[in-house]
Amino acid sequence: MTGLAHSSVAASKGQMEYVSDSKSRCAGFEFILENDWSSFTQEISELSLQAVEARMPRAGGYEVLADSDLIGLILHEAFGHASEGDLVATKESVLEGRVGEQVASPMVNLVDEGVVEGGYYLPFDDEGVEKGRLVVVREGVLKSFLHSRETAYKMGNLSSGNARAQGFGSKPIVRQTNLFMERGDQSFEELVEDIDEGLYICGRGARGGEVDVALGTFTFRVGPSYVIKNGEVGEIVRGISTSGMILETLRSVVAVGKDFAVRTSLFGGCGKDGQRVHVGHGGPPVRIERMVVGGSG
Amino acid sequence: MELLSLCEQAVKLGEKLGASEVEAYATIDSIREVNFTNRIESTRTSSFTGLGVRLALGKKLGLHSTSQLKKEEVEKAVEKALAIAKVSNPDPDWVSLPTKYGKASVEQVFDKNIVELELSTLPEKAIEVMETVQNFDKRTTVTRGSIAVGEERVAVSNCYHRYLEQKGTFASSHVTVKAEDAWNRGQSSESHQVRTWNEMKFPKLSMDASERAVRMMDAKPIRSGKITVVLRNKLFADILRTMFGRTLSADSVQKKRSPWVGKRGKQIASEDFNLFDDGVKKAGVGTREFDDEGYPQQKTPLITNGVLERYLYDNYTANKDGKTSTGNASRSYRSIPIPVPNNLTLKRGEAKLDELVEDSSHGLYVYEVIGEWLSNPISGNLSATVTNGHLIEKGELTQAVKGVIISANFFTTINKKTNLIADDTENSGSTYSPSIRIQDINIAGT
Hints:
Number of helices of chain B: 10
Low-confidence stretches of chain A: none
Oligomer: heterodimer
Largest sheet of chain B: 6 strands, antiparallel
Largest sheet of chain A: 9 strands, mixed
CATH architecture of the largest domain in chain B: 2-Layer Sandwich
Order of helices and strands of chain A: EEHHEHHEEEHEEEHEEEEEEHEEEEEE
Distance between the termini of chain B: 62 Å
Largest interface: A-B, 43 and 47 residues
CATH superfamily of the largest domain in chain B: PmbA/TldD superfamily
Low-confidence stretches of chain B: none
Structural class of chain B: alpha+beta
Strand order of the largest sheet of chain B: 3-2-1-4-5-6
CATH topology of the largest domain in chain B: PmbA/TldD fold
Shape of chain A: globular
Radius of gyration of chain B: 24 Å
């Protein structure tokens, strides 16, 4: 994998803010040579300059439109972890015993796949099992969990090729590979126009997330974002963290966009049980009826 | 092969091949671990080895490493480090490798009981934890647990004819307990990190997590608004690490990635806020005789009576600022050192934890959160999602709370004169903090 990361710190009137972003690809050095990195880094610096002047939104519940970049992070934390077979087998996950149940809006289709354009390249897992395409949620109904050989055996199933180990000194455990939501049919304008008052929350500069699969609570910290008023994207806001419940958030998906992207990162990764591995995630922009947003008083 | 003699050979070879300065750093980390749920899931024994060579050709630097502690592999690493140095751009800030080496006097960092522990002891203790949790209440079970012990050996040597070796031991335990009946589910986690086997408190670990898991069964969010919060000691330790761990490092300050640039000598917190790095704390998780460059560890005041006093230095950043190292160099054998805290510590206050709660007419006692590490140490924006808390009403703990976001500007928060610091210091990893009460924290809830 090759990639480039850039962080930009901006200071203004005694306030500081920083924004960082990266671009990575499972490719050779041609990826570095072919990209225009000066405009990539300039955009990040400009965003940090805008963000340092921005206010924080008022704390509370909001209707949100999550961009394609951020939806992958939301799915990874809000649903992906809870579908991991080891956490299901120990009955820790809130999704345990719910195969066949409606766990998301009928617009939601979730897939975990080993080889996806733009994602992390994993044709087979660390137990030698082919990592094909696994439908986790079809039209809102929970279809399957992610499995290693061990958890598949425990639950009377077949491995889905989701066993990964950080290195030779670690035990392979169940991990997501490229978990993404399939595209819908709405344009960006259509997604925004029905929101009277809400937030357009963005992935660029997001700091990541964490989930408690037993309580079903997840949280993540998004990048500089925008206020939506009367169907239009307006003022930039910063410092947003959001939180939600696994079983509620995907049920509140009210619209799914048609733009689609999956991405991976050389610099970040997913941590679980002290092991860190590269993953990919993504999807279309998605409108969610309500999420809790932390902000100012 | 002995670690130190390999390091010395690497240094000699580097000098012979024409490097102006050479340093070798080698480690052996041995870990034994058991993972369990309501049964033993896995046991593991691993040993990780490595040796890194850092050398200079004038001001041109090279680094290479090997994970194999063999003479021929070490020689290759020296040759490659030199080849890298030859094509590197000179670093104008490079002065020299450390010319001062030494050992501080430290206590309770090595326990032979850990090294000699019977293989069967860890699974036995895991079963003890499972049974304590199962016997606590018919609704409580372990959903995840681990017990680990380790031994670390470090050797470092450089061309100024210095060589040092040290060893340390570690033990840690973690348990997540679920309490569930037909209607409700609660959960809580607890963990301990110590240096000696006798400090491990398995019954306390199991009981604390079980008791809280049961109490959390009827937890729910509370309304959005402003509230007084009492943050548990270990949680505030995590927050201190996120907010100060990187930004008080001279590396961040010199790269202008820290909000504390140009703030030395200024009041940045209230007068009762005293933060220091205690690299020689008795039995401290980050206590060692010397840092990863061979410089003796020490106690360094960082914020005294609210005034920012010092940054943390390794040799390189100290040279750049014309200072001396504070003994905070940290690295793996594969990387160059950067300064990080050894045992970041907030000085305890005089209040009892009970007073923090009793004095609050309307508040939130926060025990566990997720996502506090996502807070922003540069803008000061602090936020976390509460997974385990209790409402405080008229000085009493009442309704269990989860699923609300607490947020505040950390820089404003540490300046408040109304903060009350308790006397109940505990550690989360190598950060030590007492519990603290803070007024006017924003809550995003229902």
